Amino acid sequence: MISKCIQAPGAVVMVRPHRFHPNPETASDNAFQRTDSDRTVRQMAEDGYREVTEAARRLEKEGVRVHIFEDRGEKETPDSVFPNNWFSTHPGGHVAVYPMYSPSRRRERRSDILEMLKAEYRVQDIIDYSCLEYDGLFLEGTGAMVLDHIARVAYTARSNRADPIALERFCTHFNFEPMAFDTADPGGRSIYHTNVMMSIATDFAMVGFEIMSDRARREEIRARLREMGRDVIELDNEQISEFAANSIELSAGDKRILAISSRGAASLHKEQKDIIEKSIKIVELSVPTIELAGGSVRCMLAGIHLARRY
Known about the structure:
InterPro entries: Amdntrnsf_FN0238. By secondary structure, the protein is of the alpha/beta class.
C-alpha cells in the first residue's frame, strides 16, 4: 500500500452559502448544471445552506477537520460553495490562488481564508496566478486539475477553464508533470472541469475513460495510474453524469474515507464499491441542491495539504 496522507488531506475548507443558486453565468459550458422550477430561489438557498451544514457535520463526525466559512451573499457569489476552484494547498507550506473564468467567480477569493491558513498551518508562500485573468488565461484549481500528489502528475481536461499556459506555470512552480487531454461527452461537448470525470485516491482511481477523445492518450493515462499500484475503476458516462467521479479521499483520524455524494455512490456497482472498500470507507453526503450548480462533493471541499501549527 502506498503511503497515506500525501494524497488524502485530513482537513478541508468549506463555504456555507446563504444565497445559493445555480449560476447562469457558468451555464454555457457546464453541461452538469440544472434548474429547479419546483422551488423558489429562497427555498433553494435554504436547502443548499442545510446540505452544506449537514455535510460538514458528517465529515467532522468521521474525524475530518473542517474549517467552515460563511458566505452571506453580499458580493453575489452563487458558486462560493466550491472553494477548491480558487485556491489549493500543497505539502511544504505552499498555497496557489487561481485565475477564474467567470467574472462572478473571481469575487469568491477571500483574504480571511488565506489568513486562517497562515494562522493554523505552516504556510511558506502564496503564489497568486489571478493576474492572468487580465490576459484571458484561466486555471480553476483542483476543478481544472486532478492532482496525483504521489506521482506528481496534473491530469487536466482541456477547456475554457484550463489554459495550457497557466497550467504550465503552475506545474513548473509546484513540480507537477502536466498531462492534458481532450474530452467529449455524449453530446460532443468538452468537460468543463476534470474533477467531474476523474478522482485519484491513494490505492485506486475512478476515471471516465469514455469521455477522453484520444484512444492513445486514454491508454497512457490508464498505464500511468497503474504504475503506482492503483486499481483503476472505469466509470461509464451515466456514472459520470451522476457525479460518481466528483469525490475525494480524506484522512479521518486513523482511517481514510471517500467523501462522495449519495447520488454518486448510488450509481456505483457492487464490484466498484468492493475495490474502494478494500482500503477506505465510503461516506455518502446528500447534496442534491448543490449538485444543481454542476458540481458535487469534491468541488465543495478544498483539501488542506499543510502541516498544522501547534
